[in-house]
Amino acid sequence: MNNVQHSFAYDMPHGIGAAFALAVSEAWRFAGQTAPNPPVGCVLLDAQGVVLVIAAHHRAGEWHAERLAVEQARALGVVDRIHTAVVTLEPCNHTGRTPPCTEALLSTPVQTIWVGCADPNTHVQGGGGAHLQAAGRDVRWLARSANGAEALAQCRALIAPFASKVAKGRPWITVKQALDSRGSMIPPAGRTTFTTPASLRFAHALRRVTDGVITATGTVRADRPGLGVRHVEDHPARRRLLVICGQETNTPADWLDSAQQRFDVRFCPDCTDLAPLLAGTDALWLLVEAGPTLLAALRAQGLWDDWLTIRHDTDGQDHLSVMTRHDTTPLSLFAEWAHCTQEHVCFPVS
Fold first, then answer.
1. Which 3 state secondary structure label does DSSP give 250?
2. Whole-number pLDDT of residue 96
């Protein structure tokens, strides 16, 4: 039974909105290393709204955000002051690799739990909230808050890849395409890119928050790309998925040997088999970095969720445009998104 729906709405106090911003920001720090779990943030406050603890889920197998927050509060000696919990995703009410987060919260004197998004799994959606309510706690949902739209949008963007995996059985797919002012994807002779340093940092930040890359043998042969995270600090010892569309025999052996030392490499000889191949992985969010042939195939299949185009214009600046097939996108959590024009069409990178 879905317990998220209520017959009334309520106002979200200003301090709760600020706490959600902190929770999302902390969870975003670990995006790209939590799969198959979603990134989740939790903030604990006292009765006066003072922040006691900010925590997030770091990686699968480790404590979820709520339990980590509670344990940190215990270590700090402030657990008895906990009055309100703010969580970006509904606390789980089942035992997996770790115990239920609902029990972690109920081990404290917490009175009110603000929940960003309901669990996207319809089989358990609302169960965590119902359990907390049955234990006498006041559970409040951003979806029913009269003034919580901005915080809810951030929480939904944070779990969009996870929700995609739950609903579609495949990861969220972001296509990244760089073009010069003439619409060509080919860099000038002697160069591997024609975009600005700021765009390059943004591209590597995007690699950091995703769980791997989809490319093609043609791109491998032409560019011999590294596909690793540079220009920004990566998650320690992160090993990602690398899906190569095409035949292994068409891949340079020395490049493949190097790639297999850093990635879990899968080959997909036929692009029509890509979706089921991806469904069998733990990845939540993948980045496509390839040439026009693979991009055309993905477009024909509708096998993408958002399409990021970096266009280097004649004025020497890069202008980024985003097409998305959804009403939310995890790309909106990047700072660059603040410059996006109406309908999330474009934002400039200087």
1. helix
2. 67
